[in-house]
Amino acid sequence: MKFPKNFVWGSATSSYQVEGAWNTDGRGPSIWDAFCQIPGKVHNNETGNIACDHYHKIKEDVALMKDMGLKAYRFSISWSRIMPQGRGEVNEKGIQFYSDLIDELLANDIQPWVTLYHWDLPLALQLEMDGWLNKNISDVFTDYAELCFERFGDRVKNWITFNEAWVVAILGYGQGVFAPGRISNSEPYLAGHHILISHAKSVKLYREKYQSIQNGKIGITNNCDWREPLTHKPEDKEAAKRALEFFVSWFADPIYFGHYPKSMVDRLGDRLPKFTEEEKQMLIGSTDFFGLNHYTTMIAANADEVVQGSVYGNGGLSEDQDVNLSMDPSWELTEMKWAVVPWGCRKLLEWISERYDYPDIVITENGCAYDDKLVNGEVNDQKRVEFFEGYLNACSEAIENGVNLTGYFIWSFMDNFEWASGYDKRFGIHYVDFETLERTPKASAKYLGKLIKSLS
Ligand code: PNW
């Protein structure tokens, strides 16, 4: 494996998944606090009330990062922890928590990579203005972003506005399996549109007011699986391309080209909103890097009649794409039933590079869930070790083939609240005992630690 000298080796978490302390020190509720209260929405009706109690364990957790030789930690800010109502009043105790975390990271030579929105919208904004369905949310989000730039930007040099707008739109507003639990075939496109505008506005503000003084970078993270055509027939190749467009180009085309992909415009009619000329100009070039979360691969075929697939992993609203998805039965599956296909990662990196003219790409999440067990104080997650070996080899090949991959973040630093799956699915490279909250490095953490040290 070969990686550039200053490659960013990191690991990631998100606020609601790890912090806990849901009502501590003045934090306001988010839509995930509310969603977890609805019986049946989350596995065993679990919540993020305590999660990993990261809120009270930052010294311990940063020490574990340091042990592994990680160069960067990607975490997200809980909007309602620092602005309990989403706007107006600022909660200084919440600010203090993130400020302390940032200082602790820097004291240990670990770069903070901060995501502003990883799905935990302040509940007040859902109730008062209908969340991402209201166009005015872009100004509310930009005020929140400014508070973060103001308070943390002296020390934070890497910002990510949004994590996975696709998940918010499709799982939150299309299929209703994530907060706010809405089911619709048009709201996903409206919510996604407002997220894009919110992204562009906050980037504009950062660039005009903060970037020249603070010298940071700002971008957005989108998620995408690879779609491999079922056959060499042109219609299947088109179908695979269309599936990728409905997945990642939905959000990346506006940011690189100022408009949605033609395949979406053609199929969605009035359900796909339009950007004004001003919004287009604001969107074009509004990211300093291509943030990518990648987990799996599926096979795509042209469809005259669409078979309704699984809830997860369909990209776009499946009925809008005319694509049928399937998996090769020989592929190994993780506990999420996501297939392990390292070459899909390489092909996706190459596809993105070609379409968007070789941008700097940062993999801001890659990882897998397995049914880990703590035995005599150790977790032997050999499958996860092989997963990372495979995907990192694929990344190294992509770099050799001309992809400008500049960083890689392991999802996740530790087992945590895996959204609708609760604590049942373990993605961590550190095992968390959710009774005692004790952390144990898994075999994968040891393997990755050695690898990072040998490569950097
Ligand atoms: C990402 N899908 O979520 C998130 O950024 C993390 O918070 C999460 O824990 C991780 O991946 C593992 O799930 C996704 O349905 C959720 O394709 C669902 C999908 C993709 C990513």
What would you say this structure looks like, in words?
The structure is a single chain. Residues 310-315 have low confidence and may be disordered. It contains 15 helices and 13 strands. The protein has a single domain (8-249, 286-455), classed as Glycosidases (TIM Barrel, Alpha-Beta Barrel), CATH 3.20.20.80. α8 runs antiparallel to α9 (187-214), α13 (342-355) runs parallel beside α14 (382-400) and α14 packs parallel to α15 (443-455). With 456 residues, it is an alpha/beta fold. The relative contact order is 0.14. The chain has an eight-stranded parallel beta barrel, surrounded by five helices. Strands 6-8-9 form a three-stranded mixed sheet. The chain has a two-stranded antiparallel ribbon with strand order 12-13. The protein is globular and about 55 Å long. α14 (382-400) links the parallel β10 (361-366) and β11 (405-411). Bound molecules: 4-nitrophenyl beta-D-glucopyranoside (PNW). 4-nitrophenyl beta-D-glucopyranoside binds next to loops. It is an enzyme of class 3 (hydrolase). GO terms for molecular function: beta-glucosidase activity. Substrate binds at residues 17, 118, 163, 295, 411, 418-419. Keywords: Carbohydrate metabolism, Cellulose degradation, Glycosidase, Hydrolase, Polysaccharide degradation. Belongs to the glycosyl hydrolase 1 family.
